[in-house]
Amino acid sequence: MKDHYQLLIIGGGPAGLAAATIASSKGVTCALLDEQPAPGGQIYRSIESVPEKRAEKLGTEYLRGKELASAFRACEAEYFPETRVWSLSSQREVGVLHKGKSKIISADQILVASGAMERPVPFPGWTLPGVMQAGAGQILFKSSGIVPSDGVVLAGSGPLLLLLAWQYMNVGVEIKAILDVTPLSNHLLALPKLPRALLAHHYLTKGLIYQRDLKRAGVNTKIGASLLQAEGDDCLDTIRYRHFGREHTIKTDLLLTHFGVIPQIALTQAVGCKHQWDDSQQCWRPEHDEWGSTSIDGIIVAGDGAGINGARSAEHAGRLAGLQALFALGVISQIERDQQSIEDRQWMKDERHIRPFLEAYFAVPQTMLATTNNETIICRCEEITAGQIRKAVESGHQDSNHVKFLTRCGMGACQGRQCSNAVAHIVADSGGQAISEQSHFRGRPPVTPLTLMQLADLNEEESL
Amino acid sequence: MKPNVLIIGGGLMGSSIALQLAMRGCNCSVIDKASPGRHASGSNAGGLRQLNRDPAEIPLTVEAAKMWHSIKDLVDSDCDARFSGQLRVAENRSDMKKLEQRANMVKAMGYQHEEIIGKKELYKIVPALSPHCIGGLICRGDGYGRPYHALTAFRHKAESLGVTYHSSTEALNIEQEGEGWHVRTSQKVFNSDILVNCAGAWSGQIAALMNESVPLTPKALMLMVTERLPHFVDPVMGAASRKLSFKQMQNGTLIIGGALVAKLDFEQQKTELDWQQLAKSASTVVDFFPQLSDVRIVRVWAGIEAYMPDNIPVISASQTVKNAYHAFGFSAHGFQLSPIIGRIMSQLILEGKSELPIASFSINRFSQEKK
């Protein structure tokens, strides 16, 4: 690994791969750093090694990653898999951990293509063993072909929930129920956005096919389920929920939940990019222009880390960011940038058609974002409950960061990545600070944990 | 008639002063340009240290220690204060000599709180320490607290006695009218008889609004916190000749500091961590405790604090205007002093003198140096 690159790309999902492929074709020194052992990101995880039979079950959308990965492999960019980025400064210095050694390198342009994470939504019992995020279930399936053997309940909202149910059904997993927590009122709110969504009808068609197949297979789907609770002594054994005013229970030892995805903003936060609260996507995202340029010079974002638009958009946004980096480096002219990006910009516009509909349709209900069940653990690292957060707000600690100081909520190993959203929602719901850029926990590096020895590696002076 | 007092800066010093004044019947308002505890008061390491202080601070720190040991009587909360001692370790003979000289100096002043210990006692107290050390200087009555909890306790107690806090209220203009003050802020105008400047790193700017100049340097100090570990060390650890300060909190996490300065853009209030310095600090920790090599750091932050050229605070009446007072520039070791600062300042304001010697902290000292 060199000490300096013209372009450094963080993240090996569709945005990062597309950006590296286009930028390295113009002869700039370019490196791509990624946590995973192989290209593809979460969406195309294990795309190079997946057996053909499993790939078929995962669907055609997944297979699209093959082309991206092979184009990237053929390009000139240096590739550092299993490499973590633990800090990013506005001077474009990047703290990396590669093969167990830490190092600080720099770049003229940095593309943060950090992708998305599942939106953590705390509900009673969500920390019990046996309750997992659906994304984790899908990763096990993609990378190792592991599927639940004793049946599964899926709960939450969002396209991934439906897709995973369909993928499981294809390989014969018993789906005990799908508990869709989106209220029926969402359907009405989404209706005005349907005409525009029809412009991207292939997505709608796909969703309808999944639904039809699941229905034909007799999978029990409860739309508008509420008051979801996971119960059990040491691990999950029962799920309780309400549906049309009646309480129901299901026996299961596995619950996979999904409440949509949100941008991973730990790096853009660490570097100090301006962020904004996106009401429609119910998340924070870094502010950026059409090319992905953020409020900080030389820091570009692309893909779901810049705002949720899906894998196809990420690929186009990655190419736009790559071209923008080339332009900023003085390798291509503005006219060249604009001309070479016409198709990608059109694609992105077309891809956007479906989003307002999806966002309204799958919006997580407010009652789940800010749980009123005071026993619910919100910060699982420090075991802080919703009740403790509400109490802190009531005693005058009006903003999330003060609640954090007081309760230690968000100070554990994950540094609030799992609870920042929920805390901001609960603070707002308890009469504290309304959700805004400021209500996110202030980002504190390292972005991923670093051992004392790994940090000490950076010490240039000889120690005693 | 007790005077109306306006306190600029709602951190620990401002809150402690407000509390003591309110206990003596004054009407106090506290304004803060952000929110109380946003900077040094909320982000410091929480050290309760009498050990190794400037001789001028010794009478104050000893009195403050007494107050910390019964802090619950004052603010109805123990502020999570723990008295597990503070220790400076000697790695060689010259370190040990330095510590012995220090101990003798303190004894000569008539104080007993700093005590030399030999190798045997050192390893009895800290068995986990690397075997190369030879002794140390300990203050057994020292320890640590949790800064934000302390601030909250002081603030709530002050509020219960009628003190009002105004957040997001930045002093923009200060005018003297007769004997009193008009302070125009980003929210509204405050009138008071007395003005107290304890705005931390921003105290220089407040003093400037009062036409008083002070050689204050804002610095951003970094701290690291690790994951939780099984309990392995009681006292807060320092070293005689190396930058080291670390403690294990009740919950098992380690807080590592030691005057590690980050890059600071004061105008923008932006800090950027200096990983080289942190790396040096990490190697020092590993030198003293090799078993900590694989412990994970989960969080690093920097807080903005005011430093004076001589590293001791300003605790003083204004030298240019009447009815104005200063308490700032604690140079990264103010937390422990905070309860006594409230008491001294309330005496200074209401009686014109303090129970303890504070001449060394006069704001005059900088202008006198110039002459």
Describe the structure.
The complex is a heterodimer of chains A (464) and B (371). Chain A is α/β, with parallel strands linked by helices and 464 residues long. Helices cover 36% and strands 22% of the residues of chain A. Chain A is built from 19 helices and 22 strands. In chain A, the strands form six sheets. In chain A, strands 1, 2, 3, 4, 5, 6 and 19 form a seven-stranded mixed sheet that branches. A five-stranded parallel sheet of chain A has the order 8-15-9-10-11. In chain A, a hairpin with a 4-residue loop joins β17 (275-278) and β18 (283-286). Chain A starts with a strand and ends in an 8-residue tail after the last helix. Chain B is of the alpha+beta class. Chain B has two domains: 4-56 and 147-216 and 310-370, FAD/NAD(P)-binding domain (3-Layer(bba) Sandwich); 86-140 and 217-307, D-Amino Acid Oxidase, subunit A, domain 2 (D-Amino Acid Oxidase, Chain A, domain 2). In chain B, 30% of the residues lie in helices and 29% in strands. Chain B has eleven helices and 20 strands. In chain B, the strands form four sheets. In chain B, strands 4, 5, 6, 13, 14, 15, 16, 17 and 18 form a nine-stranded mixed sheet that branches. In chain B, strands 8-2-1-12-20-19 form a six-stranded mixed sheet, with helices on both faces. A three-stranded antiparallel sheet of chain B has the order 9-10-11, with no helix packed on it. Chain B is globular, with a radius of gyration of 21 Å. The relative contact order of chain B is 0.20. The model of chain B has no long low-confidence stretch (mean pLDDT 95). The chains are: A alpha/beta (464), B alpha+beta (371). The A-B interface holds A 87, 89-91, 95, 104, 272, 395-397, 399, 402, 405-406, 408, 411-413, 415, 444-446, 449-453, 455-461, 463-464 and B 35, 37, 42, 91, 148-149, 152, 156, 225-227, 251, 270, 272-273, 275-276, 278-280, 282-287, 292-301.
